[in-house]
Amino acid sequence: MLHSLECAIWETTLKCNLNCSHCGSSAGIARDDELDTDECLSLCEQLADMKCDNIALMGGELFLRDDWYDISRCIKDLGMKLSLVSNGQIIDRYIDELATLKPTVVGISLDGLRKTHEIIRGKTGSFNKAIKAINLLRKEKIQTTVITTVSKLNFKELPQLKDLIFNKGINWQIQLATPFGNFTEDQMLSYEEFYAVGLLIAALRAKHHFHNMPVVGAHCMGYHSTIMPNFKWNGCTAGRSSMGITSNGGIVGCLAMGNNRFIEGNVRNQTLKSIWYGKDSFSYNRKFSTAKLGSFCAKCRFGSNCKGGCNSVSFATTEKFHNDPFCFYRIEKEILKK
């Protein structure tokens, strides 16, 4: 079976100007061997040759690469959709270039109100800079998504954060912090807290009909739930329709699994196409069978379709693929007894 590459998430550098407590990449200092400009532009051409539709550039902090615009421009010129993810700290320096690029969306990380956000991000003043970035992007009519990574540190502030960004033409993506990189398991949400986040998302979608503030749970939210009946999920996309690219050219199914793990190959040694279409590439996902389902999922009636949920959450919490315990259906059935 040939797998079409639809989306690539590209960690362009590990260099970062913040020190976030949930950072799965433990970003801060650039790798010594990060791809140079020519290698990045060649990679863009390979992605276009494979007819990849969407490229999302991130870090670390994307805008700390001197050539971020050259890479972004190349993606656009090759006819691919461009998304950017940033902590918002220095976007004001590049707002004119962003207006010229017209990216599909720019994601800005916002993890709570001022005090909480700055505790999580590790720097005083980071909240105001993130808000300024959001306002500048909206002024330029650039589609903006607030990305909130939720843990015990900010769980209770979600309703107030909603009030802060409500009705400003901003999307809101909520995702679960998982224990790898800088993040420790003791700060992860309980199953009940996780489900409460789902209830909030469902309530906001029902009340506002997805217009005033489109809010979504990331790939870690949902799975055959009674509260999100329209949520479609047919298994983790890592290595099936999406890939992650590390700053030094490593190819993975998903960067959220830990960007130095499960490397399938490196574009310095192989073409991107040969890595993607390798007969044993991404075998943990491409060669799925229900026999691979872990203990949380083995007896589930949705197992063959769901394939055990999000593999990033699954591996981070159980050290197994296809075994995601943070499943709304499981929580409803086994914990809440609904």
Following the backbone from N to C, one meets helices and strands in this order, namely EHEHEHEHHEHEHEEEEHHHHH
Strand order of the largest sheet: 7-6-5-4-3-2-1-8-9-10
What does the largest sheet look like? 10 strands, mixed
Ends apart, CA distance between termini: 39 Å
Helical content stands at: 25-40%
Structural class: alpha/beta
The number of distinct β-strands equals 10
Structure in words:
The protein is of the alpha/beta class and 338 residues long. The protein is 32% helix and 14% strand. A ten-stranded mixed beta sheet has the order 7-6-5-4-3-2-1-8-9-10. β3 (81-86), α3 and β4 (105-109) form a beta-alpha-beta unit. α1 packs parallel to α2 (68-77). The termini are far apart. The relative contact order is 0.13.
Q: What's the structural blueprint in terms of helices and strands?
A:
Blueprint: E1 7-11, H1 37-49, E2 54-58, H2 68-77, E3 81-86, H3 95-101, E4 105-109, H4 114-121, H5 126-139, E5 144-150, H6 158-165, E6 170-176, H7 191-208, E7 215-217, E8 242-245, E9 250-252, E10 265-266, H8 272-276, H9 283-286, H10 303-306, H11 311-318, H12 328-335
Parallel strand pairs: 1-2, 1-8, 2-3, 3-4, 4-5, 5-6, 6-7
Antiparallel strand pairs: 8-9, 9-10
What would a concise description of this structure say?
The protein has 338 residues and is α/β, with parallel strands linked by helices. The protein is built from twelve helices and ten strands. Strands 7-6-5-4-3-2-1-8-9-10 form a ten-stranded mixed beta sheet.
